[in-house]
């Protein structure tokens, strides 16, 4: 591996004050390296007590408004160096890949400098009917799952150099994981890693060289500057104190006058003296009230902004989500002057300072529009984009993030609603702000009283809205599907359940070795090297003491479970369908689906069809299973069933997947509402109870679920016409309690029948609207404990048990005074050396925390050995 010389344009520190001095003075953090390092980077505070400092780029165009020609120029300069490194012949065969969200514009700009190569960027936005060509997990991001969705698969399948572009090269984990994944599918001889700054330690630099030797490829590195971050002793404790002090009441975080905090997050911080929410100087930060009156005009545009018709060229991609070729670049260059002129015409007379604000992954189109506007007008033009990343704002010249606007997501993101941010825009004295979004994000939420446009309108005299059409490739013609999908698998050939109890819309992978040690899986999942559905955990074999706890819990809770089964089944029969088709989400939902089927038979004489299907977080529901169901049943009769809700991630996953399925297959009628036994997260309307209590089927894995593993989705095992896979562990038959669990609960049906009917009647008459309290609680816990990844927070007794059985647990939070429902959790925690921390007012009985940033070198449950 060879490393190119670091060079590139530099910029003066503004007003003689380095925008990292505030953090450096208080934390003792030091940037050491090239002379231009502090020109490129400032410092801010993360909302994370385990990693207090954040490097903030002054030239990326994400957090800090910057001249668009400066932002684009840095990327172009890096691209030209890559072209010099490769030579023209290799440059023509290269592909540039940028990382969402921060490096999408940078990747495009590098491709502009390279001049001869197409570019692509990863995305967190799935597209119905478009099969990912790859993907990876970025475990330390706020939104972890990345997809690669090229319109032309040849972009990734070629053997020319792959140029990977990120804003900052810190440890190299993300790049290594990407190369490892793609190299296994499409081997190449050469990779070039490009970053604005190379901040790796000497050890991390050695890892990249070792990796290049391991895969037998050349890996070059090109960066504008390099250095390291020096952290003094006790920096985390100092950072925690600073974050706690300022985050508890930062008035630097602003929303429109009178607007409510964006749902579903916690309340906005209270004002803190000395940290103003808008002004950088004088009165120009005074917020004007949001406009009164109706929120839409005849064209559907809210009064907070004036819409501009860019006349974007038809069929021109809005960015590199699906690929952007040199021919696309030529079309864009030709159209930019005209689009910039239309923006300039809409600016208020005499506008001296104009800000162009892009939108998350949509960085390149707004950047180029801003650059063209800079050439077309005498106004000072600045550019930045909105972001998912939560950062503390402090109004001090020596701090990189001076102000923060917070608003709800407005593009119906696949991973659910959440808060979004625009930094250093409020109070910067802009005479106009041009918000540039794609059409997918031009939603009512964008125009709402608490939305982005209203936030901007409170801080600038004029807001303009430019909408770029979201480019969606035509779904390639798929070969004709087989006329018949396989019939469901049934016991005793597959599972220990009776054949009439459930049909599994799965394929049998019992003969494939899929298990890996828990620690090995955890490291691969969190590093992004593997998706959790590509392997299986080694099945936990319970001790005699643990089995005794299971049987005691079953005896104690059987009647309570039976009543909840009755309640949810009666609600389904009354509201959803008189003869529902029960479809359980494998595998936790399967015992519940069987119990609901038994209740319908016991109380109403109904023989309901029941199937189990696979759904995978980040990958969606098995589309072939949906096709089979649509061929054999009316989709309007299908009721999806699960055991319990945690934070509601699967609820959202199902809704998104069904929307995509309707678009791709034209099949409508499937209802995304899940019926669950217990809904402690308040995520659904159809439930038996909202109490968070022990459901004994959560205590074990396959031995209480018909001896079936969790489902598997791996490209080499599951083809386009296959159901997702699972294993039947016949060898565990001696310890199987699947049928015993069902029989113990069913035996209590007669004694709870009247109570269940009465409770169902009360719920049918009540307001059961989800509050999503569980999601909000998980967000708070994730922030409070510095985890920064809601996927590592597993709320509720059932999910906590799964953490103990399948993952590498960090700690368990238990509601103060929780009783026997947690006996088995305490036993598992004792066996694994995991601390149980009692917490007052916990909204769940317990919450399991997966070890954050786990590697097998992380020793101790307190996380102190984790690299941060």
UniProtKB/TrEMBL annotation:
Stretch list, region Disordered: 253-302
PELOTA RNA-binding domain location: 772-851
CDD domains linked to this entry: PRTases_typeI
Domain (Orotate phosphoribosyltransferase-like) ranges: 40-227
UniProt keyword Transport present: no
Domain TRSP intervals: 318-453
Residue ranges constituting the Cysteine protease StiP N-terminal domain according to the UniProt record: 495-745
Keywords per UniProt: Glycosyltransferase, Transferase
SUPFAM superfamilies, alphabetized: PRTase-like
GO MF annotation terms: glycosyltransferase activity
Pfam families from the UniProt entry: PELOTA_1 (PF15608), PRTase_2 (PF15609), StiP (PF11202), TRSP (PF12500)
Protein name: Phosphoribosyltransferase
Organism: Streptomyces dubilierae
């Amino acid at each position: 591996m060879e490393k190119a010389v670091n060079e590139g344009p530099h910029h003066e520190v503004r007003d003689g004050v380095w925008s990292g001095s505030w953090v450096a003075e208080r934390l003792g953090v030091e940037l050491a390296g090239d002379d231009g390092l502090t020109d490129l980077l400032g410092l801010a505070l993360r909302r994370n007590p385990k990693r207090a400092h954040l490097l903030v780029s002054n030239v990326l165009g994400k957090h800090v408004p910057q001249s668009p020609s400066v932002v684009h120029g840095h990327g172009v300069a890096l691209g030209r160096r890559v072209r010099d490194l490769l030579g023209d012949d290799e440059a023509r065969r290269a592909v540039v890949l940028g990382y969402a969200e921060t490096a999408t514009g940078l990747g495009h700009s590098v491709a502009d400098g390279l001049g001869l190569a197409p570019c692509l960027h990863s995305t967190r936005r799935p597209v119905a009917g478009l099969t990912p060509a790859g993907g990876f997990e970025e475990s330390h991001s706020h939104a972890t799952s990345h997809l690669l969705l090229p319109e032309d698969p040849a972009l990734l399948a070629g053997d020319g150099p792959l140029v990977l572009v990120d804003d900052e090269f810190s440890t190299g984990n993300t790049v290594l994981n990407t190369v490892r994944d793609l190299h296994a599918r499409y081997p190449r001889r050469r990779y070039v890693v490009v970053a604005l700054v190379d901040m790796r330690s000497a050890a991390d630099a050695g890892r990249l060289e070792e990796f290049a030797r391991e895969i037998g490829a050349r890996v070059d590195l090109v960066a504008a500057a390099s250095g390291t971050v020096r952290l003094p002793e006790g920096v985390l404790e100092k950072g925690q104190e600073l974050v706690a002090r300022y985050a508890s009441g930062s008035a630097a975080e602003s929303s429109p006058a009178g607007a409510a905090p964006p749902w579903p997050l916690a309340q906005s911080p209270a004002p803190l003296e000395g940290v103003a929410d808008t002004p950088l100087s004088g009165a120009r930060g005074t917020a004007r009230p949001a406009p009164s009156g109706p929120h839409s005009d005849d064209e559907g545009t809210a009064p907070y902004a004036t819409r501009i018709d860019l006349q974007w060229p038809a069929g021109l991609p809005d960015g590199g989500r699906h690929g952007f070729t040199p021919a696309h670049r030529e079309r864009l260059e030709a159209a930019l002057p005209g689009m910039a002129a239309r923006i300039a015409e809409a600016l208020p007379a005499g506008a001296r300072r104009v800000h162009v604000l892009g939108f998350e992954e949509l960085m390149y189109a707004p950047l180029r529009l801003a650059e063209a506007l800079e050439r077309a007008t005498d106004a000072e033009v600045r550019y930045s984009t909105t972001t998912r990343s939560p950062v503390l704002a402090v109004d001090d010249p020596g701090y990189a993030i001076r102000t923060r606007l917070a608003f709800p997501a407005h593009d119906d993101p696949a991973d659910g609603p959440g808060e979004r941010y625009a930094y250093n825009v409020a109070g910067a004295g802009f005479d106009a702000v041009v918000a540039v979004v794609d059409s997918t994000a031009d939603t009512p939420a964008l125009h709402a009283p608490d939305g982005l446009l209203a936030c901007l309108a409170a801080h600038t005299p004029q807001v303009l809205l430019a909408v770029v059409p979201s480019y969606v490739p035509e779904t390639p013609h798929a070969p004709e599907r087989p006329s018949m999908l396989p019939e469901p698998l049934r016991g005793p050939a597959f599972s220990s359940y009776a054949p009439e109890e459930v049909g599994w819309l799965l394929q049998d992978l019992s003969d494939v070795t899929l298990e890996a040690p828990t620690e090995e899986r955890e490291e691969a999942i969190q590093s992004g090297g593997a998706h959790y559905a590509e392997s299986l955990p080694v099945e936990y074999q319970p001790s005699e003491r643990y089995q005794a706890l299971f049987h005691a819990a079953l005896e104690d809770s059987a009647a309570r479970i039976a009543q909840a089964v009755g309640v949810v089944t009666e609600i389904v029969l009354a509201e959803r369908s008189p003869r529902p088709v029960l479809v359980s989400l494998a595998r936790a939902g399967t015992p519940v689906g069987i119990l609901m089927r038994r209740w319908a038979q016991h109380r109403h004489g109904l023989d309901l069809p029941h199937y189990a299907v696979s759904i995978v977080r980040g990958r969606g529901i098995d589309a072939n299973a949906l096709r089979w169901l649509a061929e054999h049943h009316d989709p309007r009769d299908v009721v999806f069933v699960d055991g319990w809700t945690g934070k509601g991630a699967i609820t959202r996953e199902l809704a998104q997947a069904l929307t995509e399925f309707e678009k791709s297959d034209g099949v409508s009628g499937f209802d995304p509402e899940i019926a669950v036994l217990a809904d402690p997260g308040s995520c659904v309307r159809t439930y038996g109870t909202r109490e968070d209590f022990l459901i004994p089927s959560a205590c074990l894995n396959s031995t209480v679920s018909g001896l079936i593993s969790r489902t598997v989705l791996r490209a080499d095992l599951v083809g386009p016409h296959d159901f997702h896979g699972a294993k039947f562990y016949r060898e565990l038959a001696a310890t199987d309690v699947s049928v015993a669990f069902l029989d113990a609960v069913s035996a209590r049906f007669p004694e709870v029948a009247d109570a269940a009917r009465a409770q169902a009647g009360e719920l049918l008459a009540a307001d059961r609207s989800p509050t999503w309290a569980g999601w909000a609680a998980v967000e708070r816990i994730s922030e409070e404990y510095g985890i920064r990844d809601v996927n590592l927070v597993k709320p509720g007794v059932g999910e906590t048990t799964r953490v103990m059985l399948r993952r590498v647990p960090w700690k368990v939070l238990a509601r103060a005074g929780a009783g026997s429902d947690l006996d088995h959790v305490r036993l598992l925690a004792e066996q694994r050396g995991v601390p149980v921390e009692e917490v007052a007012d916990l909204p769940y009985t317990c919450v399991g925390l997966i070890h954050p940033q786990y590697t097998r070198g992380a020793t101790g449950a307190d996380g102190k050995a984790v690299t941060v």
